Amino acid sequence: MTRNFILEAMRSLRLAEGCKGNQVYAITPAEKFSDTRTKVDVAKPSVRNMEAEPPAGNGSCVAKLLEPPINPHLRLVDHVETLASIYGELERVLDEEKSGLYLEQSFVFRGLDETKLLRRSLRSARQHASQIHEKIVFSAWLRYEKREEELDDNLPPMNCSGRALECPKAALVAGYSPVTVFNPCPCRQPLLDCEPASECSTSSVTGEDVVFCIGDGEVVCNREKIAALSIPFHAMLFGCFTESQRSRINFSHNGITLQGMSAVNEFSKTGCLDSLSPEIVLELLSFANKFCCEKMKASCDKHLAGLVHNIHDAEIFVEYGLEENAELLVASCLQVFLRELPKSLQNPHFSGLLCNFEGGKRLAMVGHSSFALYSFLSQVAMEDDMKSDTSVKLLERLRECATSRRQRALALHQLGCVMLERKQYREAQNWFEAAAEAGHVYSLAGVARAKFKRGHRYSAYKEANGLISCYKPAGWMYEERSLYCCGKEKMMDLNMATELDPTLPYPYRFRAAALMDENKIHTAIAEINRILGFKVSPECLELRAWFCLALQDYDGALRDIRALLTLDPNFLMYSGRVPADQLLRLLCQHVEQWTKADCWMQLYDRWSCVDDIGSLAVVHQMLENEPEKGLLRFRQSLLLLRLNCPKAAMRSLRLARKHASSEHEKLVYEGWILYDTGHREEALQKSEESIVIQRSFEAFFLKAYALADTSLDPASAANVVVLLEEALKCPSDGLRKGQALNNLGSVYVDCGKLDLAADCYVSALNIRHTRAHQGLARVYHLKNERKAAYEEMTKLIEKARNNASAYEKRSEYCERDMAKADLSMATQLDPLRTYPYRYRAAGNADMVSWAMQISNGVYIGLCIFVCAQSFVLFGEEMVLIAWVANCENGPRAAEEYAA
Fold first, then answer.
1. pTM of the entire predicted model
2. Pick from 161, 156, 129: which is nearest to 146 by CA?
């Protein structure tokens, strides 16, 4: 295959031209391909055929790949202002009203893709929920958000993880009690169903029996006990009615059987339902409703709710609950449905009840219809299939339940996104316009996109241009406008989009595609490398793989496809028609095959030069030969965490646990799952259990890691040292021992033992753990050997493929001008790193002016109460931008930081 032939084939893809197509998404959804993959024409495929055949539709497939979708979540022009506003409202409202505001706060974090803060908001919403309905919704929602982190995939829906916030039984307890969510889980305590019957103090008759005749049978009851069941019974048996003078009462036409009346009599004496069948309890529930026996109804409701364990039970009981207005029973049925999402969305009984207007009204009558419920359901439905009728119906219910402006804006915007996906462009435009009127500025981008899809290109351009003119410019505004122009103007908009928001992938991909069309392949690769340096995605890896093929760099193409498959094992390439793993098999025929020893050598080389994507590709290749080796899956998870791909990392870690070769190894992986999900104490326990079975490097390393993160006192540090030393005594490979030595050096530095720390770092470097240069530089710095520290970091920069953090760290060991140059390079390589912005902002601020004005606290107060609520990832930045805004050079500094 000649190089020119490949270039012609790649040009035929019309990468940049493809952006003019009319479709939103790149490929057929991966989850749907499993049903159709055998239908793909794969007869005698070859690399030559894969490259030479141009995609159908004049490049429309690449249009689907490159055109950015409209984000279905809230995307605010000023999220800080919105979060501050929500916090102010939280201070003013009643405690029982806070859960709804925490839910709205979670919408903001979801739009920012801040998963940790999103979950924190949902936990706060559950903590402050006062109604049973709110509790079951938020508990199930928290469980859904963490579904990929559970140790066991096959747990029953009503299983409790031991945490009261997510406990199904705790959710069925009425009342506002935010403190109890931190108490021991109710699942650990027996559920008492019997309550003593109350005495009727108003009766003048004691011990008198009354006989209820039902058909040919009779039930002898205590008149006083029956009268105590309700006001109607008391009036009948002790009031002015004739029944009060009779000892025998005909009860045949009151809808209760002889067995049912016997159960009523028993309940009137004992207050217990334990020995009764569900059929009899349902009969008692209906009887209690008819005769206003509130205590009996509550007991029946509670008893029946405890019988609902799975979706089948829920299908049976939910209709009874709705018919008899049994709030707890309906809650229990609804909770099972919610905790089985997304699978339960396919249940016709519940989907009909929840999606239809009449069903929604029936749920509302028993207190089980809310914005929170339909927000949760619509999110799940859109993730499952955005174009489905179910998504549309649930969003319509969501719109009906919206009470605040933010809630209404979200519902309308999401309806617009769904209609856009369904190619119902006029309806999409109407919904987006309504969302914009409700205050969601980003929906105007949806208006522009819908107009463009309808063929009104100039109108779409005017809409996007109006956004830039009327509001503070943002990267997504320029990105949107670029879709409706061409040539230099398009490139200017894309460059401005990247300048304002470097995390947007579309501008990089389009520029790279355009360069490819101009046969500037190396420059195209350099462009796509800009974003892959700090934000890894399957789409960008796919594009770089095509570029590598154009250069006949099969090794590079294999690297990217292997990394891509690690992120998404079901990814489809080549217009969504070919599984990535099929192309991988074809390319393997054109490269030299590595032995197991070769793979380990390659992994050491890539690990040493801090090439995480390359390391990921090598591990993927090793897994082809040993797919059930848990240790390799574990290594894969560590690399994915470094690449900031937490979901893929958790999937690999779960696979590591599944393929663990021994019980002690399995416990280690379970411990890491618990550690990564925030359960430090449980992780420590797992490591200790593993060590009891067998002493191993990974068990000691896990225990040291978890202990260091749990406690910072000197005694704890000494224990961490001992644990790491024990780990180093156990068998392991150099990659992991290098990391342990590096961690041990860090602990020694924290303890002030600099010489011991230096020895650890040097030992780590001797086994090619390149990151140890940073620790050794820190030791030199603490010894006031600043030049040596600078030189050590320079060595790291020269060796590391991903070296943004190295430039950032080296800036601490040099003069101001050199530091600014290093920080500029760090920002260029990784715009997500916050320290360079903070440094430059602080440098632009007048510190003396700030000290004089800090007392007024206007800006500081605003930002601190935002930060104090739930900001973890960028709280310091909020405070910084607050005080620099008060300084003499505040506007300039704040503008630099806001970038």
1. 0.84
2. 161
